[in-house]
Write a structure and sequence with these properties.
CATH architecture of the largest domain: Roll
Oligomer: single chain
Number of strands: 23
Largest sheet: 9 strands, antiparallel
Mean pLDDT: 97
Low-confidence stretches: none
Bound molecules: flavin mononucleotide, manganese (II) ion
Shape: globular
Number of domains: 2
Strand content: 25-35%
CATH topology of the largest domain: Pnp Oxidase, Chain A
Length: about 450
C-alpha cells in the first residue's frame, strides 16, 4: 500500500520533516520532547518497552498535513472536498501485519504499551491517535476518533460525551442492555484519521471516505474477537466492548484541542478482549493539541467551501487558522459581487461551531495576518459590516459559553461574529490602489554595493 503509516513516515523523512531520537526515552517525557522539536519525531528506543518505537507530532503543522495529503498547503481544502465526493469502498484481506502478534486472555496488558502521560493535569496516560470502528444493526459500520484514558491493564475510559454517530450506536446498544463492540486501530495513515473526524451522515462508512482520499480501497482484516474489521496495516489494534454502564465512570481531565485543560467527564468504560500488533510495532502518539487541530482543518475548510458554493459565492481561498484551533474560525477571500460579503458570512457561520468568520476580497493574501489586519482596518465600518448572531449551537470546551454554569448534560449556545472585510459597495476599487515605489523595476540595490 503506497499510503500506509510507514510510507507517510518515510515521506516526512524525505522532506526533512522527521527527526530521529536515538537515546532511550521515558514515555512520560515524550510529549515535552516532541514540543521542543521543530519536526515530527521518531523515538527509536523507549525505556522499559524494548519492543516498541514511538512516532508523533506527525501532522502538527499545515506543511506536514500537506505532505500527508500529497498536495500543496493551499490545496488542502479543495483536495479534501473533491475526495469526499468520490468514496471508494474498502476491501477485505485474509492476512494482515496488524495481527502479526495476537494477545488474548491474561496476555492482554496495556502496561506493555508505552502510553504516555501528556499534560500535567491529565487524569492518566492517554492514547490519542485512535481510529475507533463500531457497527449498528441498522446504520452499519462507523469510524470516529475517540481518545482513550488508561484505567487498568484491560480497561480504558473513552470520551463519548459530545453528540456523534458512535454515541448514538452506544445509546442504542445500551437501550437493549447490550455492550457495544469496538475495535481501535492505532498507527494508521492520516487519511484514515481525517475520514474518522469527518462528520459523514450516520449511515455512511467513513472507511469509504478514507478510500476516496487514498484514491484506492482501504484494506481491512477481520478482528479476532469482535465482529468488526480494521485497517490491515495498522500498527496496533485493541478489540473489546464498551460496557453497558452508560455515562457513569470518570474520565479526564485531558488537554483538549482548544489548547485548554478540560474537566473531568462522566463516560463509559472500554474493556479490552484482545490486543494485536505488528511484529516490530510503532506506537503513534498524536501530539495534542496541534495534530488534533490540523486534522480538523480540512474538514472545516471543505465545509466552508461547500457552504459558500451552495450560497453561490465564489471562493478564492479559505483557511481555518490554528489560532482558532482550526475549528472555531474561518477566513475566506472571495470574488465578490454586491452583497456577497454578507452572503459569504451567513454561509461560513452556518458551519458546525464556527463562531468567527472573516471575509475579504481576492487581492488579500489570507495567509498573511498583516494583510488581513489591513483589510479589516480599511474595508470595515463596524456599524455596517459586523454581523452578530445570538444563541447558536456552541461547544462546551469553549470557556466563554459558560457551560460549567449549566449543570451536567446541558448543551451550551454561543454567539457568532461575522466581519465583512470586503471593499464596501459604492467604494471604487481604485481607492485601494497600493503605493508603488518610483522606478521600482529600474534600479537594483546590488548594483550599488
Ligand atoms: C485526534 C482526535 C481525537 C478526537 N477525540 C474525540 C473524543 O475523545 N470524543 C469525541 O466525541 N470526539 C472526538 N474527536 C472528534 C470525532 O472524531 C468526530 O466528531 C467524528 O466525526 C466522530 O465520528 P462519528 O460521528 O462517525 O462517530 C476527535 C477527533 C480527532 C481528530
Ligand atoms: Mn459516522
Amino acid at each position: 500500500m503506497s499510503h500506509g503509516f510507514r510510507e507517510f513516515l518515510r515521506a516526512l523523512e524525505d522532506a526533512g520533516e522527521l527527526q530521529r531520537v536515538k537515546k532511550a526515552v521515558d514515555p512520560r517525557h515524550l510529549s515535552a520532547l516532541m514540543a521542543q522539536a521543530s519536526q515530527a519525531t521518531f523515538f527509536e528506543q523507549i525505556a522499559g518497552y524494548p519492543d516498541w518505537r514511538v512516532a508523533g507530532a506527525l501532522v502538527s503543522t499545515r506543511r506536514r498535513l500537506a505532505i500527508a495529503m500529497g498536495c500543496s498547503e493551499a490545496a488542502i481544502a479543495t483536495r479534501f472536498e473533491e475526495s469526499i465526493r468520490q468514496p471508494i469502498e474498502p476491501t477485505l484481506v485474509d492476512r494482515a501485519p496488524c495481527q502479526d502478534v495476537v494477545l488474548t486472555g491474561n496476555d492482554v496488558d496495556l502496561t506493555r504499551v508505552p502510553i504516555p502521560m501528556m499534560h500535567v493535569k491529565d487524569g492518566g496516560p492517554y492514547i490519542s491517535a485512535t481510529l475507533v470502528v463500531s457497527k449498528d444493526p441498522e446504520y452499519g459500520r462507523n469510524v470516529g476518533s475517540y481518545r482513550l484514558m488508561y484505567r487498568t491493564p484491560r480497561e480504558t475510559g473513552i470520551d463519548l460525551v459530545s453528540p456523534s454517530d458512535m454515541r448514538v450506536y452506544y445509546q442504542r446498544a445500551l437501550d437493549r442492555g447490550r455492550p457495544l463492540e469496538i475495535a481501535v486501530a492505532i498507527g494508521v495513515h492520516p487519511f484514515e484519521l481525517l475520514a474518522a473526524s469527518y462528520k459523514a451522515p450516520i449511515d455512511v462508512d467513513e472507511l469509504a471516505v478514507a478510500g476516496g482520499l487514498h484514491g484506492a480501497p482501504v484494506e481491512l482484516v477481520r478482528c479476532r474477537t469482535v465482529d468488526l474489521e480494521v485497517p490491515a496495516h495498522a500498527e496496533l489494534v485493541l478489540e473489546g466492548e464498551l460496557l453497558p454502564i452508560g455515562w457513569t465512570a470518570d474520565e479526564g481531565p485531558f488537554g483538549e484541542f482548544s489548547h485548554i485543560t478540560g474537566e473531568v467527564k462522566w463516560n463509559p468504560i472500554f474493556r479490552i478482549r484482545a490486543i494485536t500488533h505488528r511484529r516490530d510495532p510503532i506506537f503513534y502518539v498524536l501530539q495534542m493539541p496541534w495534530e488534533n487541530d490540523w486534522l480538523a482543518a480540512p474538514v472545516i475548510e471543505a465545509a466552508g467551501l461547500q457552504a459558500l458554493r451552495v450560497a453561490s459565492v465564489q471562493p478564492v481561498a479559505i483557511r481555518a487558522p490554528v489560532g482558532g484551533c482550526c475549528y472555531w474560525t474561518l477566513v475566506a477571500s472571495i470574488k465578490k459581487r454586491p452583497g456577497e460579503g454578507k452572503n459569504a458570512l451567513l454561509a461560513l457561520l452556518s458551519v458546525a461551531e464556527v463562531k468567527l468568520a472573516i471575509v475579504t476580497d481576492d487581492d488579500i493574501d489570507i495567509d498573511d495576518p498583516d494583510q488581513l489586519d489591513w483589510a479589516m482596518t480599511f474595508r470595515v465600518q463596524a456599524d455596517q459590516d459586523v454581523l452578530i448572531v445570538s444563541g447558536a449551537r456552541g461547544k462546551h470546551i469553549d470557556p466563554s459559553v459558560r457551560a460549567a454554569a449549566m449543570g451536567k448534560g446541558g448543551l451550551p449556545t454561543t454567539a457568532k461574529l461575522g466581519i465583512d472585510a470586503t471593499i464596501p459597495e459604492g467604494v471604487p476599487r481604485s481607492h485601494y490602489e497600493r503605493l508603488r515605489y518610483f522606478a521600482k523595476d529600474a534600479v537594483r540595490l546590488e548594483d550599488y554595493r
